[in-house]
Design brief:
By secondary structure, this protein is an alpha/beta fold. It has 14 helices and 13 strands. The chain has 2 domains: 176 residues, Rossmann fold, CATH 3.40.50; 162 residues, Rossmann fold, CATH 3.40.50. A hairpin with a 2-residue loop joins β12 and β13. α6 packs across α7, α8 packs across α11 and α9 packs antiparallel against α10. Bound molecules: 6-O-phosphono-beta-D-fructofuranose. 6-O-phosphono-beta-D-fructofuranose binds next to loops.
Length: 377
């Protein structure tokens, strides 16, 4: 019997999504004669039954396109805001899955999508996922598609910031995405030769950062590039956040839960504009002029790199192969040159952060980059 596949993209968009949709669709149709249908705007489109055909005419010419031709959203099946109220749309999703006689739903997304996919698996749907995100923080895959492109953009940006920082003898604080993981900041910081790299995994001491910059000035380098991950925290804030997290974990009554949430929200609020606060602080401590550049969504936009096209295509194609074999309830992970299924239960809820003994961290230290945690030079 001809298999019927549904495809959706969820979470933040990422370069390589269209390459992956094409990889799934072309292999499913061309090699196995399956029918493929798309759902618009992530889980919301599936709940609202908004579809898009994914025939060969649609799949042709999308390999190099950024974004996602299906549209995306951060909506969760069980917590969807409709008319200002939160609704559990799981039943509507199951109904639409059945109405389209789907054999499987393919969900392309990052950490949040893996959790939502597991939720649907637990409701009895056949689900298979692909790991997408510029943050590279999905567990049990070597890498996610989108990361390589964003890494290239962030690295080129640091390259460009060097000449202006150098000309004006300034500190430039460049904020790099990555949510609560430091892969992008660390990778681009090393590749772009940042003088300081600040990561969420390694709370920093602003005095140590200032000292590293002043040491450079003493060596005749009157400019510095500070690559700061958007999730990086000064050590004081990191300690407060850890305490707030403990409070949340131990809150049992409605009142204590509310208190813990409000404490957490306050800390989140405090962390907004942290790149700017860091620059102001460094100006005071070093006497140098500082500027801020937030790379933001530039890192997610535009044409995917060759490496991301290749990764997305081979994972997409492997996904169709696994569907043909009847393998469901898994994420298709990149393990070296292989694409292998990993159970969704092992992936969902497990963010892959930079381990403190990772070789990139050692490399950064060995070339004299300050990570803001220990005094050097
Ligand atoms: O997950 C990708 C990402 O770009 C993160 O790096 C960033 O923290 C987040 O998405 C931004 O989310 P949004 O698109 O919802 O503003």
């Amino acid at each position: 019997m001809t298999k019927q596949i549904g495809v959706l993209t969820a979470g933040g968009d990422s370069p390589g999504l269209n390459a992956a949709i094409r990889g799934v669709g072309k292999t499913a149709d061309g090699c196995y004669g399956m029918r493929v249908i798309g759902f618009r705007d992530g889980f919301r489109g599936l709940a609202e039954n908004r579809t898009q055909p994914l025939g060969s005419d649609v799949l042709s010419g999308i390999l190099t396109l950024g974004g996602t031709i299906l549209g995306t959203s951060r909506d969760k099946p069980h917590k969807m805001i409709i008319g200002g109220k939160t609704h559990d749309m799981t039943d509507a999703i199951i109904e639409n899955y059945q109405a389209h006689h789907l054999d499987v739903l393919v969900c392309l997304g990052g950490g949040g999508t893996q959790k939502n996919a597991l939720h649907l698996k637990q409701q009895g749907l056949n689900i298979i996922t692909l790991p997408k995100t510029i943050d590279n923080d999905v567990a049990h895959t070597d890498v996610t598609f989108g990361f390589d492109t964003a890494l290239g953009i962030a690295t080129e940006s640091i390259d460009r910031l060097h000449s202006t920082a150098h000309s004006h003898h300034r500190i430039i604080v460049v904020e790099i995405m990555g949510h609560r993981a430091g892969w992008l900041a660390l990778g681009a910081g090393i590749a772009g030769g940042a003088d300081v790299i600040l990561l969420p995994e390694l709370p920093y001491d602003v005095n140590i950062v200032a000292e590293a910059i002043c040491n450079r000035v003493r060596r005749g380098k009157k400019f510095s590039i500070v690559a700061v991950a958007e999730g990086a925290l000064p050590k004081e804030l990191a300690a407060q956040r850890a305490a707030a997290q403990r409070l949340q974990e131990h809150a049992t009554t409605k009142k204590t839960k509310k208190q813990a949430q409000s404490e957490w929200d306050q800390l989140e609020q405090q962390h907004r504009n942290h790149a700017l606060q860091l620059a102001i602080h460094l100006e005071k401590l070093t006497g140098l002029e500082a500027r801020v550049t937030i790379l933001g969504y530039l890192q997610r936009g535009g044409t995917p790199s060759a490496a991301d096209r290749l990764l997305a295509t081979r994972l997409g194609s492997a996904c169709a192969r696994l569907i043909h074999q009847g393998v469901y309830g898994v994420m298709v992970a990149a393990h070296g040159d292989q694409a292998e299924p990993v159970l969704l239960e092992e992936v969902a809820g497990h963010r892959r952060r930079v381990p403190l003994d990772h070789p990139w961290i050692e490399t950064a230290r060995q070339v004299g980059t300050s990570l803001g945690d220990e005094r050097i030079g």
